[in-house]
Amino acid sequence: MLFVLPHASLLKTCHHQKKKCVGYLPKYVKFSLPWTEKFGIVKNCARMSDTDRQVSDSYGKLGRDRAPSDIIATQLSVLDQARSFKSACIVGATGFVGQYLVLLLARAGVELTIVTRDVAKAKAIFAKYERRGQSLQYCELSSSHRSHNEILKTCFSKKDAIVNLAGAPIAGRRWTETYKEQLISSRVRVTQKIVEVIKTMDKEERPKVLVNASAVGYYGVSDSKEFDETSPPGDDFLAVLCRRWESAAQQLDQSFGTRVVILRFGIVIGSGGGVLGSMTPIFQMFLGGPVGTGRQWISWIQVMDLVSLIIHSITNENMFGVYNACSPAPVTMSDFCNTLGKIIGRPSWIPVPAVVIRTILGEGSIVVLDGQRVYPSRTLAAGFHFQYPDIRSALEASVRIH
Known about the structure:
The chain is globular. It contains 15 helices and 18 strands. By secondary structure, it is α/β, with parallel strands linked by helices. Helix content is 39%, strand content 17%. Helix 4 (96-107) links the parallel strand 6 (87-91) and strand 7. The strands form 6 sheets. A 7-stranded parallel sheet has the order 8-7-6-9-10-12-16, with helices on both faces. The chain has a 3-stranded antiparallel sheet with strand order 1-2-3, with no helix packed on it. A two-stranded antiparallel ribbon has the order 4-5.
């Protein structure tokens, strides 16, 4: 489940710099509603504290501008864990989670290959590492031609890990039949291609582990049921998509010598994007509130916990199969919005009616109006420790506003 909040189309500019701000709300931010430019009305919100600016500046950059200030001393153990392997290929590295993963692995000195459909875009995003003397390799994921498979085989050869995060955005779009096909192609077919290439490699050349993304949408939706990794799948479009996605990865069974770990992502919370990228500005303008009934469940994970879990999946050789990548403390939409409002210092008082979401998104409204209560039973049993186990700590680490 992800959020789409249609209160406003938000444009965000920073008075003290030309680039878009990522990682925190800058000193002065201008937010514009669709009708405000016509009347010259804007809202100035959120002064960032000097401490946040110093922390953010001291930890480099992420994406186009600032780095998340989450990467602090508490994450040193994750860096140490990442240093226990030498090389990785990241498929889907230019997305929200992928950029955080690349940032941390690059800091750990891991040799990285970025597999992407748009090499120019990836190079623009990650150019900062080249300037720091950290060499990244790039591999284009574009064609099904045999010669291209040979290129991928070279990229995958003897890698410690392949991390597949590829997938077109599920939320915020109306699911036309054409877009449904794109959702399938960007997940199922990309995964099939990765598995096909690995299968054709000599055993001693194959990567040690494939960590493949999935989603808690696998379980379908329910306000009353509880789910863990042993629960059966749902039957809506997202559930079927996740089943096909996971099935594609599971074709690489243990006989091929590559361990397969599937992580079912919950809602990802972090600074610089994800759900908070759309919600925080709206709350800053006193327009925040729950979507639909507010009773739907949100199974979530803080982005640094997710990155840590990916690394844990790579380094823990006893991990295989499916794990829920979500906090052990799911919350309702109302509780999520109330907590966010308290942290920002704004009320959660303007709900978005379900009929509005359904009108805008059609079938895709299920992502916003329905949810699932998911627990990470196998993840905890595998010895993973959540740095941010409750929603308040996760939001406080992600929203740097005072």
